[in-house]
Every structure is written in C-alpha cells, then in structure tokens.
Amino acid sequence: METSSTPRPRRMPPELREKAIRDAAIALAQESGIANLTVRTVAARAGVAPALIAHYRPSMDAFVAEVFGAIVAAEREDVFAAAAAIEGPRQRIAAIVEMLLDGQRDDVTLVWVQAWAAGARNEELAARVRHEMDGWQQDLEAVVADGVGAGEITATQAEGAAWLLLAMVDGMNAHSLVKWAPDDRSGLARRALAAVLG
Question: 33-61 pLDDT, tens per residue?
Fold first, then answer.
C-alpha cells in the first residue's frame, strides 16, 4: 500500500498564531471599524476556527480595547514623529493639526468614533480610550508648552490650548464621516489655531 509523501502542515507556534490573530483584527478594524470585531469576523479574516480566537482572546471586550489601542497609538506615534522634523513649536502644532484634518486618516477616525460610543458599554475599551486621549493631550500640550517657553505662542495655559485643538480636530473629523464638514478643513484649522494660540 502506497502512502502519500506530502508532509502534514505544521502547526503555527502559539506566539505566531497570536500575532496573526491580532494582525487580522487590526486589519479588519482599519477597513470597517471596531464595531465589526466579533469572534466570527476575526476568525474568518485570520482563516481559523472561531474557537481558536476564543482560546487566544477569551474576552472580546478586552481584545477590542487592545485592537483600538494598537491602531490609535500607532497613529499618534506617526503624527508626532513626522512633526518632530519641523522646526518651531508653532509650525509643529500647525503640521499636527493639518495632518489630522487632511482626510488621510478617516479609517482611524471611524475607529475613534466607534470606540467613544462602544466605550459606554465596554469598560475595558472606555479605559483604553481615556488612556489614549490622555496621551494625545499630553503630547500636544508639551509642544504648546515649548511654544510658550520659546515666546512663539502667547497662550498662558498650554493644557487648555491642547484640549481646545483636540476637540476641534475630533469634532471636524467626526463630522467628515457623514460628509458634514467645511470644504477647506485646513483653512478653518489655521484660523482656529491663530485664535487659540494667540
């Protein structure tokens, strides 16, 4: 009797399987938001059985929070890394705001908006949303404070200026998801910057 010489497929090591599942969930969320993350949708995207997702991520609430955090932390890192190459705190702030309003990050905006809504029912997600919002506020506040220290910005309270700028960015980007936003978001942002920063 002949036997097949085709080797059986190797099982993926647990750490690689876990990474593949996480990567699949991140890609799915970037395409259609975190509201689409379920055991079944992540399993289909990763090409595995739903039971395997439940094995590696027994709490879907915690997994959604993890995926949200990975996406928005990467965005913040990218934006501030790009802005770091720009001279002068005022110009850096303008660049940060314009990058966030240029329409290239609408996938991340959708993730944020869905996280704010879902966080009302998912405390783990709500905690991660608060953590990431604090990170944005603190990083932007530091740049505003540099501008105040350098005499480029007349705002006396860097914390307040950072909150106002982030509220403007969040609001305009959320509006843009339903096509309710100014045609020239960057122009409005520049006028708002002048008003907030003095």
Answer: 999 999 999 999 999 999 999 999 999 99
| Beta strand residue intervals within the chain, DSSP E | none
**How far apart, in Å, are the Cα atoms of 13 and each of 18, 19, 21, 27?**
9, 10, 12, 21
CATH 1.10.10 fits 11-58, yes or no: yes
Whole-model pTM: value is 0.90
- The domain segmentation of the chain, as residue ranges, is 11-58, 61-197
The tokens describing 100, both together, are 């966030």
Q: 159-166: which pairs have CB atoms within 8 A and are 24 or more residues apart?
A: 161/196, 161/197, 162/137, 163/137, 164/196, 165/93, 165/97, 165/140, 165/192, 165/193, 165/196, 166/133, 166/136, 166/137, 166/140
Cα separation, 123 vs 64, in Å, equals 11
- CATH number, span 61-197: 1.10.357.10
